[in-house]
Amino acid sequence: MSFMGVTEFLTALLSIVIIDLVLAGDNAIVLGLAARNLPKDKQKKVIVWGTIGAVIVRALATLAVVWLLKIPGLLLMGGIVLIWIAVKLLIEEKDHNVEATSSMWAAIRTIIIADAVMGLDNVLAVAGAAHGSFWLVLLGLMISVPIMVWGSTMILKLMEKLPWIIYVGSGVLAFTAAKMIVDEKLITMYFQDPLIKYGFILIVVAIVPWAGHLFKKLKHKKQVQIRDVDYAE
């Protein structure tokens, strides 16, 4: 493999790991909420088996999306959706309505279903970053899943203390989205010039975090105004 090939592989792998950690950093909350009513001796089993099940479902879903993105036009659509996901990452407040249960197998099922629903954005992002490589998807999961399971609480706290980490994640998503768009066969002729291609990628990476920050400020301002009106009444 050439130097450029190795660089592209490592860049894609790093992107997948960052995407996994940023978009699935609340994995510990899902695990904890689903298993909180179980006895201590069963909680560890639920977390282990729930995680294994969630990883299998996520891996299969990601591999399916990797295959689907080879269909003409879907890479462009996926890139546009991913740009919105990158912006949404900065402005949304995640809601963890995960039902607790006293049955071990019911808790495992809850974890798998909750992770599958919450991980749709993750699946698209990882599939886009993998550039059609199934091995990159699997390798990325092998690296990031242990970190997610045993370090996700720490990751959450780190994100709260260092908000710029979220912006890094948003930038990686924007980079992945831009790469998906310029690699779309239907419009690739417009990006033959490296200056146009990489200029477009840089513009997307710069604009997306800025747009997310702007929307977040506007959302916060609107919430403050609503609170002030309610208080005045």
Features:
about 230 residues, mainly alpha, 9 helices
Structure description:
The protein is built from nine helices and no strands. The model has no long low-confidence stretch (mean pLDDT 76). The radius of gyration is 19 Å and the shape is globular. Helix 4 packs across helix 6. The chain has helices at 3-23, 27-35, 40-68, 74-91, 104-118, 120-129, 134-161, 164-182, 194-232. By secondary structure, the protein is mostly helical.
**Largest β-sheet summary:** none
Rg of Cα set? 19 Å
Characterize the overall form. Answer: globular
Figure out the total of helices: 9
Helix percentage: over 70%
| Helix and strand composition category | mainly alpha
Which spans of ≥5 residues are poorly predicted at pLDDT below 50? none
Task: Give the strand tally.
Answer: 0
Mean pLDDT: 76
Strand content: under 5%
List the secondary-structure elements in sequence, H or E: HHHHHHHHH
- Measured distance between first and last alpha carbons: 68 Å
Question: What's the SSE blueprint?
Answer:
Elements: H1 3-23, H2 27-35, H3 40-68, H4 74-91, H5 104-118, H6 120-129, H7 134-161, H8 164-182, H9 194-232
Helix pairs in contact: 1-6, 1-7, 1-8, 2-5, 3-5, 3-6, 3-7, 4-6, 4-8, 4-9, 8-9
In short:
The chain has 233 residues and is mostly helical. The chain has helices at residues 3-23, 27-35, 40-68, 74-91, 104-118, 120-129, 134-161, 164-182, 194-232. α3 packs across α7.
